[in-house]
Amino acid sequence: MRLTVTAGKGGVGKTTVAYNLAAELDAVAVDADLGMADLPSARGPDLHDVLAGRASAVEAVREGGPVAVLPCGRSLAGVRAADPAALVDAVRAVEREYGRVVVDAPAGMHSDAAVALLAGQAAVVVTRPSRAALAGALRTRELARAVGTPLARVVLNRAGRDSHDRLASALGAPVTAVPESDCLAEAHRAGQPVRAVAPGSTASERFTALASAVETVLRESSSGSLPQSGP
Fold first, then answer.
1. Engineering a disulfide at 20: which of 12, 207, 212, 216 sits with its beta carbon 3.0 to 4.6 angstroms away?
2. Does residue 54 lie within any of the structural domains?
3. Which H or E run contains 160?
């Protein structure tokens, strides 16, 4: 199972969604944002090393934290040495070893974002109810369509129910709203999934429901019954 979490612009909570989805799905989170890595890191080989041919994807996975992570380096030299085209093979290698992978893609429309989408069997687009964020989400939906990756779900942060139907229609996928909350902010600061900090919270319940919905879509994708994203 390979899921890509993406967004049209930064600052919409994409990495938080990817990390919490990986926790719910018992998946390895791959930080594929080569220039602005944000998932927890540690000493040892990272995705920059993997994409430069200096390490295997499996040996770069860190299993010691609450979520297994293939972290990305944070140096400009690492970015320059990395071959983004090797990401798809790296993600598939992790999938063969661990079974489930959630890819935290770079935001925007650059080629790195397209490769991250190619690495997934389906995608989740994260957005907020601002005009810029929604416009970015629409552009990302088109990028997903262009590379042939189905859109499984849209995550709408900081929004009410009344905007769900319009957004679902525009993007061609059901919408899950994840509310802004103190427990979610606390979990982010602690580097923990929200279910570990506040298991009975609304945010935790939304991520559980989101993971279940995504699993259903990915099963349909594997069986060949899922249409491509968008109308």
1. 207
2. yes
3. none
